[in-house]
Amino acid sequence: MPDRYDLPAGFRWGVATAAYQIEGAVDEDGRGPSVWDTFTARSGAIRDGHTGAVACDHYHRHPEDIALMHGLGLDGYRFSIAWPRIQPTGAGPVNAAGLAFYDRLVDDLLAVGITPLPTLFHWDLPQALEDAGGWLNRDTAYRFAEYAAIVADRLGDRVPAWITLNEPFVHTVYGYAMGIHAPGRTLMFEALPAAHHQLLGHGLAAAALHERGLEVMLSNNLTPVEPATPSPADAAAAAAYDTLHNRLFTDPVLLGRYPDLAALGVPDDIFGAVRPGDLDLIHTPGLDGLGVNYYNPTRVAAPTDPGLPFDLLDIPDVPHTAFGWPVVPDGLRRLLTGLRIRYGTALPPITMTENGCSTTEDLDDTFRIDYLSAHLDALATTVAEGVDVRGYYTWSLIDNFEWAEGLFSQRFGLVHVDFATQRRTPKASYAWYRDLIAVHRARCAKEGSVTSP
Ligand code: IFM
Description:
By secondary structure, the protein is an alpha/beta fold. 40% of the residues lie in helices and 14% in strands. The chain has helices spanning 19-22, 35-40, 58-72, 83-86, 96-111, 127-131, 139-155, 168-177, 192-211, 232-255, 278-282, 329-343, 366-384, 428-446, and strands spanning 12-16, 76-80, 115-121, 161-166, 215-221, 225-227, 289-293, 298-301, 311-313, 350-354, 389-395, 415-418, 423-426.
């Protein structure tokens, strides 16, 4: 049974974060308001009324955070760029101070040998674009490609690979269908034009990045879906959920077509959003990597509420994270081998762009160590079975603003943050991850290979 140290030489180790979750400084240096600034101001939207206005104050403390990353011996750092810092209204003139922040961040990372892996959109849409319809407005896709080109022109000389979108599934369903995240719309399946326009934005931005000789990935939250029982009704419900969560966001990019959306009650043209030629723009045969964010499998049964084509059930008899998410490391193996079967040669190399857990532990976070260690063992097994996985970025470097859950209740970091003082304290998992990376690298070097450039 392979373990984490059997991962191949050249495998890249990293951590992941996102702008609104760590940066703070929402009113500084010309940053415009984002949908998250607006949403967090809504009464009752976020646990304890928290906001990301300060979060981890990373905007001012990034040297300390980079030192923490350096201490881990990382190959790469996945972060996101706040579009409202670059174009405060999502279009038009560039805010030089905002771009300069990421320029410094990139240089500071490179100075300690860490390769930056930026995500262009991790949910913080400029509010001015939301006022014009947000991702329900087709024009947002074109604005996104314009913004991607601006950032790539500035950083592309030092940043080889880019992620266009983070988790369009979560952004569409939580943000536009259910109203749990910004922008807080509750459109249910009528939210799906927002998915199409994000995918169109991905396609247009990918073309702009490729034109500049840069590598492109797309990260999504994917889940292996299992029917609660072998009954045909549960199997049909599971297939419908798989379509919504996984295939809707991956088939068009890798295969150039949408899956059959009939089980969701959604017309083929996604309520008129899909125009002739769109799928050619979205289809990215030259996609350089698929970013997979894995947290847990999903168990599905036939609906009890006729309003939805499925019911989502808990997975009993396994540990659960502080969020209540079931811990199923083998689900990662099933997910990745399932992708290989489903997409065959159309599947590009995979990078795990997120995996981790929230716990209620303070510094002695053995639950997290067990979680990460079991998932990395499952990953090593998957790689040994022939799936091409190139790297692993754990979520997250530091405790941060966990969206609707606010600041304190869901801590995902290898590093504890005292939000009153901004004091960072590495947890036990920090030393564990550092040692794991060092042992893996030493082992690969001993076998005659070099793991990182
Ligand atoms: O914190 C989030 C992140 O922004 C996107 N993926 C899941 C993480 C944990 O919920």
